[in-house]
Amino acid sequence: MVGAENEGSGIQSWVPVPEGSDFPIVNLPYGVIRRADGATSIAVAIGDHVLDLGIVQRAGLLGAVPALPPDAMSRSSLNGLMAAGPVTWRATRRAVTELLRADRRVSTSERVVLEAALLRRDDVELLLPFEVADYVDFYSSLHHARNVGRILRPGEEPLPPNWRSLPMAYHGRAGTVVVGGCVVPRPHGQYAADDGTPRFLPSRMVDFELEVGFVIGTGSARGAPIETSQAANHVFGLVLVNDWSARDIQAFEYRPLGPFLGKSFATSISPWVVTLDAIQPFVGPSQAQDPPVAPYLRCDEPWRLDVTLEVAIASRAMCERGHAPHVVCTTSAANLYWTIPQQLAHATVNGASTRTGDLFASGTVSGPERGSWGSLLELTWGGTRAIELPTGEQRAFLEDGDTVVMRGRCEANDRIRIGFGELVGTIGAAPSAAGASVD
Amino acid sequence: MVGAENEGSGIQSWVPVPEGSDFPIVNLPYGVIRRADGATSIAVAIGDHVLDLGIVQRAGLLGAVPALPPDAMSRSSLNGLMAAGPVTWRATRRAVTELLRADRRVSTSERVVLEAALLRRDDVELLLPFEVADYVDFYSSLHHARNVGRILRPGEEPLPPNWRSLPMAYHGRAGTVVVGGCVVPRPHGQYAADDGTPRFLPSRMVDFELEVGFVIGTGSARGAPIETSQAANHVFGLVLVNDWSARDIQAFEYRPLGPFLGKSFATSISPWVVTLDAIQPFVGPSQAQDPPVAPYLRCDEPWRLDVTLEVAIASRAMCERGHAPHVVCTTSAANLYWTIPQQLAHATVNGASTRTGDLFASGTVSGPERGSWGSLLELTWGGTRAIELPTGEQRAFLEDGDTVVMRGRCEANDRIRIGFGELVGTIGAAPSAAGASVD
Questions:
Q1: Burial of B401 (0-12, 13-18, 19+ CB in 10 A)
Q2: Is there a contact between B355 and A175 if contact means CB atoms under 8 Å apart?
Q3: How far apart are CA A389 and CA A378, in angstroms?
Q4: pLDDT(B375) > 70
């Protein structure tokens, strides 16, 4: 990763940061908050608090950040900040870090502003952090692609023949990307009933997909592919992604045009966008690729993301009985075969442009062992090996009222932890609309 | 189609409309223009002229159109007008029609405004008419789907097994939808070379796809499917679509996730959006469907679009020698098996929302005979039967410098003609970028 700043790990903040918090001062992920009075603005997370940067910017406390629009922090999306480019991102991060450092002298007037801007995270609503322009979903985990092949096409070579030649992907629906915390009603759709005939019913195979996504800050022009060495100048940050999938609808529709309604009902992203700069200390050398990739996909810089990821499920009964969500998957983004610069180079090598707010997700992240597989399709092997919850309930796929919690964090021995917060979503009952009557 | 107004066919305009023009007063398609002085605004086409509605609205000549934003016509996209809803669309159309009628008394002050607002179409630049939110491409022509199956999967059943159960579709790249008139450089990509090994090269199989698209004016909420009877309250109008396709790149990448880079380099749309109201007299009873469709896809209203479509090609040599573009395909949107209300009901039946600016394209429109097939893939049967141009040049797929011209029109015996204008695009040479070096 080029040009990222290592903020060091010894900095302390005057805002208390509980041990094990996802949000120490070296993280400072960006989100969009709605205050109790209804006002929206951009904020960073710090410990159990958020700092309202709208208030901070209006009071002049950010100083002169080059190319930052004067109202950027008072908007209801990150797009203005993201479009301003990497010099602005770094200067903003430096200015916010300065304001939050414990060893900084604060004037009385600054203190008044900062106290007004510091809110308990529980007291604000977290909104969709950016307007999604286009949404592309990759298929970049070797273990996931191989598992899916084995489950859906048994007896055939599990990996698509060109899987190692290029980072496969498809376009998803940008307009149905929602922020974590939403209820996702069970979708209706057509699929083959037990007797093999097409039926229109609520899906019986609603699944999660654990993914990591990145969002474009600075777009690129049509006809100007983004070379792998330039990725860090375009990528603003990372989010957790839950690419909800209705497996029965997907299986019925995906040949030959790929996934459509089996995915487009909702895609959830985490409310906090972790910047590339924050994650830089946790980036390692990319894994070797065999066979060698085409020149446009070569990348000498380290881009392996050492982000530990986990998925936990809580049924309604578990919530009622006070059980914590039950962890069903622990894995790492380091398992991904294709890196961010490769994904971006591939997606633009045909001359396609990118825009501020373009979301690129990794595809399901799965590791080699069962406990590291990032979807129920894999964890229950197509629904044939149910998971048992602490209440004794069995799960092949998600039931109404099930809550899925995804978490991501970077940590190493004595180094400070950087987290993504939680990405939460609950499956709701299928709506009983007139158009949705059972055939 | 519910509630559309038949404006009648006997109205004349004081603006001269040449015989055979696509743009009589009963059409009045909307577009976005850039004047010679750089100012942009919304306009309607009339004969060989355009009427700048920004000037008209600012002078108060539109009168009190309900819910029309006071600056809607001075914006650089139709999205504001489109979002205002069908009552506003009708009232605006009525107001503009009144201003252009030959039999209307015009005051001196009105005449001054209208003369300033009336511009020769050749004197303005036509911009992308709306900001595309999501872009969905269907596969709704039976003849096209069957031809593609026969060409790509010979010996197998050509039609995907569920093709008649649902209108198949995939999401395309909204950010690379461009307005007609743009040069589209030949894309690079990976595909199997003659010896079968993956290579990274400029595409050798660049194709057009003749399609008709519709654009959403009034969006719909998540969880609220659009019933077939409600389509006309959401659809603002229609455009011609050229879904450029690199067949070699597409063939290499499309299993199992569908088309990606083989399509995402560019999709061209016509500069003029023909409203549903204008096209209403040319809508006939929808074709019978066998087997019967699921209840949510049933639609009793007529939605067969009697739009004659054609594609013409002009090579660089043809242009130099003064040849007119050579017509290679004449077909009709009436050939489409799935209708607009069915496409919209299907795309939202899983609870997916829609937004102002969502573009839904039909997929390639092909009829039963060879001359009515809407892509070179079909017309040259996978490149095996070249087309001969008037210069004697042969074409299996598009060469650099080839211009593709698409046209659409509705006409019936003594009834007036409604046209879409031309959708023009020229294939440029592949860029020789560093990342695009041949492996």
A1: middle
A2: yes
A3: 17
A4: yes
